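User: Please fill in residues for this 145-position structure.
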């Protein structure tokens, strides 16, 4: 078995702690040859979000809130079975988990600051509306004899 391809960075200096990742392997559905019936190539990666100390407390709370629908008992689970080799599925699952946590721990966007419409622009709009209405009124056939 090879070593994992380095730490999976969530954001900044924070990465997935190798020791807290729980791996499970099972037979994968999908493509494969004769070998596929005997190899456990589907990967299920579990990470106990509620119990981890690897994430800053603020991030952890944010992630627990945002991923509430995906958690079961504070544990987030990611599956990968798109590749035929277990190794590539492990990579895919770890990358997917890191991306999921990066998105869930991202700071909320800055609130939008409403801007005022400049007075000149508003006046110009009203002036153009008036001109347009005059043009249209001039087209009516009222005064035609």
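Assistant: Residues filled in for all 145 positions:
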């Amino acid at each position: 078995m090879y070593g994992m391809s380095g730490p999976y960075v969530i954001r900044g200096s924070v990465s997935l702690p190798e020791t807290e990742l729980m791996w499970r392997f099972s037979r994968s559905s999908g493509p494969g040859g004769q070998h596929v019936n005997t190899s456990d190539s589907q990967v299920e990666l579990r990470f106990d979000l509620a119990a981890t100390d690897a994430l800053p407390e603020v991030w952890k709370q944010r992630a627990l809130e945002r991923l509430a629908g995906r958690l079961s008992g504070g544990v987030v689970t990611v599956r990968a079975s798109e590749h035929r080799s277990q190794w590539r599925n492990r990579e895919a699952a770890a990358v997917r988990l890191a991306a999921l946590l990066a998105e869930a721990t991202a700071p909320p966007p800055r609130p939008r600051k409403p801007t005022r419409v400049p007075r000149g622009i508003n006046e110009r709009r009203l002036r153009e509306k008036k001109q347009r209405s005059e043009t249209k009124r001039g087209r009516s056939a009222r005064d035609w004899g």
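For context: Residues 65 and 97 are 16 Å apart (CA to CA).
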